[in-house]
Amino acid sequence: MIKGEVVAMETTLSSTAKNVFVWFIVWFCCGGWKSEGGTTPNLKSIVIGRCYNYIMLINPTFSCDCEEVWRLFEEAVVPKSSCSNQVKDYQEMLSILPQNSPCHQFLFWSKTRWMMEAYTTLMENVYTLEDTLVGYVFNQLDWCGHLHHTGFDFESCPEWSTCPLHPVYSLWRQASQHFAETACGNITVLLNGSIASAFNRKSMFGSVELNGLNPSMVEYVNIKVVSDLRGPFIESCSLGSVAELIQILQFRGFKWTCTDNDLTLKLLQCVQSPQDPSCQMCSSSLLQTQGSPLIGP
Fold it and tell me: What is the pLDDT of residues 271-287, one digit of tens each?
C-alpha cells in the first residue's frame, strides 16, 4: 500500500476503524510463533518469564511464585508418557494461580482465534481465558512427556485427536472449566459462520465451557456470528448449529441475544481485506450492514 492510499484510508475511517488499522499493522508484522512437532524449545524460560511479566506488568495486583508454578507444572507432565495426563494432574499448579472475575467482560470463542485476538486488542474491558494468568503463560505452547525417560519430549508430541489424555488438552480443559464457572454478568460468545457446526458440542466451548456457565451468575449470553467476507455463509443466528446453541441456552434458563453482522467485527475484517467489494470503508455503508440482533426471553 503506497503512502497516498494510507492517508486516504485514514481520512475515511472513524476513530474505531483507525484503532483497527493500527492493530492490523502490528499483527501483520509481529505475528505469533508456534512450535511444531515436539515440546516448545526453551519452555521453562518462556513459562517463568511470562509468569513474571504477568504479575509485574500486566496485573501487579497478583502475587505468585513463578518458580513454584514451573515446578508443579513439570511434576504434572514429565513423570508420565506423552499421552497419559489427566485433568487432575494440573490441579495443584492451578490452585496457586490467582484469577480475578471481571463481570460483564467475559468472551468465549470457537474457531475464531484471529478474530478474537483482534477484537480483544481493539475493545477495552474484554476478558478471555488467554487473559488469565494460566492462559497468558501457556498460550500457544506445546509440551509432552517422554515415553522412555524422564523429561520433556522435544522431538515429537502426539496430535490431540489421537490422544484422549493429551497433556496440553488436559490443562486447557481444566482451565476452561474454571474460567466458565467464574463467568458473570453479560458474556459474549464469538462463533464462525463460515464453517459447518459453528457451535460444536465436541469443541472446548461446547463440551466444557458451556456446561460450566451458571444461569444464576450470567445475565445475558450475547452470541456474535461472524462469516468470512466472501463466505461461505453457512450458519447464522437462525440457521444451523447456532440455533441448537440457542435452544440449549433457553432450556437451561439463560437470557440471550444473537447478532449476525456486528459492526466492529466487520471493520476488523475490512482492515484485513480493504479491497474486498463488500468493504468500501465508508461509515454509512458499514452502518447499513449492521444486523439487528435476535433477543431471547
Answer: 888 888 878 654 445 45
